[in-house]
Amino acid sequence: MFQINENYLKLPGSYLFSTIAKKVNAYTAANPSKEIIRLGIGDVTLPLAPVVIDTLHSAVDEMASAETFHGYAPDLGYEFLRNAIVEHDYKKRGADIAADEIFISDGAKSDSGNIGDIFSVNNKIAVCDPVYPVYVDTNAMAGRTGEYLVDQQKWSNVIYMPCTAETNFAPELPKETPDIIYLCFPNNPTGSTITKDELQRWVDYANKVGAVIIYDAAYEAYISEENVPHTIYECEGARTCAIELRSFSKNAGFTGTRLGFTVIPKDLKSGDVTLHSLWARRHGTKFNGAPYIIQRAGAAVYTEEGQKQTGEQIAYYMKNAKTILEGLKSAGYTVSGGVNAPYIWLKTPDKMTSWEFFDYLLEKANVVGTPGSGFGPSGEGYFRLTAFGSYENTVRALERIKAL
Ligand code: PLP
Fold it and tell me: Residues 330, 300: one domain?
C-alpha cells in the first residue's frame, strides 16, 4: 500500500497568502461598499514591456513553420539567453561565470525548492529570519527541518539567523555551524541589503566551514546603492561555495510568464563531485526549463530597448516605494527597506502584533499588507508593504494611513 510523505503533515496551518485572502474576502463580503487597496502581495502589476511582447509574437510565429519550429529546449537552456546573461549580469559586474554554468528554469521559486534534491537530508540549514518562506517550507517537505514547535513558531532543526533592527536587518554569522546557508539580498520581506564587504565575510566563512550558500538575488535589479553587490560572484572565492538564484519576475514582469535561472559554478564540489554535475542530471530528468518562446522573450530584456523599458518599470515601482517610505515616516512610523528593494518594512505601532496591525489596517484604512510574522519568528511586530501597486493607489493608501 502506498504511503505519503509525512513531512507534509508537519507543515503549519495554511500558507500565509491564503490566510490573508480569506480575511480580505470575509471583510469585503461584510463590507461590500468599501474599496480595498492592496499593498500586500509580491506580484507585479505593470504589463510586459513592449519589446518583450513583440518578441513573444515573433517567437510564436516561428513555432508555426517546420523550418523555425522548436521542440524540447536544451537542458541548460538556449545559448542565446545564457550568453546574454553572462554578458549583462556577470561580466559587466566583474564576475567570472561561464554560459555553461547557467541553468535556465521556470523561475526562482521552483529552483529554490528543487535545489534541495541534490543535498542529503542530513544537512542542517540556516536561514535569515524573517525571509521568503519557500526555503524553510521546502526543506520541511524534504524532512530536513525536524519538528515544528508551535509555541516558538520555529522548526527544531533549523538555524534561524535573526535579522532585526539591532543588526540593520542583516544576519550575523551563526554560532552553530550550518551546512546550507540561505541568503536573500535584497531581502524579501525587509528590503534590507548587505555590502560587498559583508557578503565577502559570508563567502569566507562558508569556504572555511565547508558550507554552501544559496544566494537568492531575485531583487537584484532594484539595487540603487553603490556598495551593494548585484551577484555573490563579485566576491572572491564564491565559485567554490555559492549557488545563485535569479528571476525575471520582478525585474521584467515575468511572474505569470515564468523565467529564471540558477548558477552553479563548476568549482563548487563535495569531495570529487561537482554540484554542477548533480544539478545537470536533475535538470535533464526532472525538467523544469522554460519554453523557447519564453527564453526568447527573456533575451529581449537584455537588449538596449529591453533594458530601457524594464528600467522604467522598476523606476515606477521605486517611486511608489519612496511614496510609502516618506508617507509612513511623516506619519511617525519606524520604517526601513524601500531603497534597494520594492519592499517597505515597518514596525507596528503600540506594540500591536503583526496580525493585529493587519486587521487594524484592513478595517480602518481598507489597506491590505502582509504580517511580518508570516516570514519568520523575528518578523513578529513588523509589517510589509510592497511597491507593486499603481502609483495612484499607493498615494491614496498612504493618505488613508496618514489619516488614521
Ligand atoms: N525569491 C524571492 C526572494 C522571492 O520573493 C520570490 C517571489 O516573490 C521568488 C524568489 C520567486 O521568484 P519566481 O517568480 O521567479 O519564482
Answer: no
